Amino acid sequence: MPRPAHGSPAGQPGPRRDPRPSPAVTARTTAAATLLLNATYEPLCVVSSRRAIVLVLADKAVSVHSAAEEVHAETLSLPVPVVVRLTRYVRVPYPAQVPLSRRAVFHRDASTCVYCGGSATSIDHVVPRSRGGTHTWDNVVAACRRCNHTKADRSLAELGWKLPHPPRTPSGAAWRLLGARAVDPRWREWLGMPESVSA
Ligand SMILES: [Zn+2]
């Protein structure tokens, strides 16, 4: 007796396996980050190592500093790029200021309370917001819970407290590019940062 010719003997008509090969670049490094320099060696931004490899393979960038480990592409192997430089100069408008965030303030103030030097657990508005203080880099500092609580809505003059130095807006290549993000030690020399300073 004729039967409709559908279904497989195994009885598992699930979705077909896609026979396409794995992506062109396969490595554990897809989550790693690479510092991208302009043609002038000026730091531009941080890209995924995968993106950096694509730029190098397309001759749009050259590797300046590579890791010991290699990444395997379809037809070749190459060292994982840590720092790459664009072969052509690009003009990039930079954001005027580093975005203000709790994490960035902690980073600027080294997670230290500006009033007592203890371990910071909160951010404080030097001029309280209730008194018209702004949420800007020059009015926000890292503070410990005790100082924050003691200070409450009072001004520094009322408390007789002083800041060790006025809160500053962070600047420089590292801040512009990375904000509060961790710096790969191998990027330091390209960011104009001393080798020994910890992030
Ligand atoms: Zn404190």
Automatic annotation (TrEMBL):
Alphabetic keyword roster: Endonuclease, Hydrolase, Nuclease
Signal peptide extent: none
Annotated HNH nuclease domain residues: 100-149
PANTHER family: OS07G0170200 PROTEIN, SLL1193 PROTEIN
Gene3D superfamilies associated with the record: 1.10.30.50
Official protein name in the record: 5-methylcytosine-specific restriction endonuclease McrA
Record-level Gene Ontology MF annotations: endonuclease activity
Region (Disordered) location: 1-25
Native source species: Geodermatophilus pulveris
